[in-house]
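Students often ask what a 'structure token' actually looks like in practice. Rather than answer in the abstract, let us consider Large ribosomal subunit protein bL19, a protein of 115 residues. Its sequence is given first.
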Amino acid sequence: MNVVDRLGMEHIKKNIPVFKAGDTLRVHVKITEGDKQRIQIYQGVCISRMNRGVGSTFTVRKISDGFGVERVFSLHSPAVDKIEVVSIGRVRRAKLYYLRNLRGKAARIREKRYS
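Now compare that with the structural description of the same chain:
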């Protein structure tokens, strides 16, 4: 393990839930406005996840005022306060970029049911 990897291991968060593409997430993001800080919740479907150690990212897509909004979050960023898994989606792909072309009910993802 080289020096860069060793330094990165110090910043890796331990309290990250298990999630994958297709899951509906609620991401608590720290927003700084002037000298005040607040937490804003960004809820949507995870359409991709890239695992690269401290540089891991995930993309969350939501519909806001009829427009699709995607946001890429760094998994171990100090700006991401907490990640909650709202529902687990039943998908057959690792990247759900095809959701960008779907509208309305066609863009729904079935929820995984456990018996």
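One point worth highlighting: Residues 3-92 form a domain with the SH3 type barrels. fold (CATH 2.30.30.790). Ask yourself how you might have guessed this from the sequence alone, and why that guess would often be unreliable.
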